[in-house]
Specification:
mainly beta, 0% helix
């Protein structure tokens, strides 16, 4: 019998006119670094529009969340409640810069799995583009 980590992800993305919800259940790599960060690595699903990309999400003990995405849609972004950070986002059509404003991070990840809830806005020079609310549930399963 093999133990694997499974992530259930729910992402709600809102703008001024619309709301889109994407759910994903996938096998992940779940690790803890020497600095105490909990990292979740997974391939993006085709349904997300970011197929052929790999995402690594790391949560530091101070609840700073860093997202690294490689592939066709690559980015490095930081989510820290109450703080703003610049990020660059690469698409097949070119690079775009955004301001990420962290609203909240609720980190309940342990060695046994757990949950992570976070909310952030994506802003550009023209103002708010989207608000993103992400909920993750991490579980160990035996297969």
């Amino acid at each position: 019998m093999k133990e694997v980590w499974i992530m259930k992800l729910n992402n709600i993305q809102r703008d001024e006119q619309d709301e889109t919800e994407v759910s994903l259940d996938t096998e992940i790599l779940y690790t803890k670094t020497q600095k105490g960060e909990r990292c979740i690595t997974y391939p993006e699903a085709e349904a997300s529009g970011m197929g052929n990309s790999m995402t690594k999400l790391c949560v530091a003990p101070d609840d700073m969340v860093t997202v690294f995405r490689t592939g066709e849609f690559s980015t490095n972004l930081v989510i820290l409640p109450g703080k703003k950070h610049f990020c660059s986002y690469t698409t097949p059509y070119g690079n775009v810069s955004f301001i990420i404003h962290g609203k909240y991070v609720r980190n309940h990840l342990t060695d046994e799995g757990g949950t992570l809830d976070l909310c952030y806005t994506v802003n550009a020079d023209a103002g708010l583009l989207t608000e993103n609310v992400i909920s993750l549930q991490i579980e160990k399963q035996k297969i």
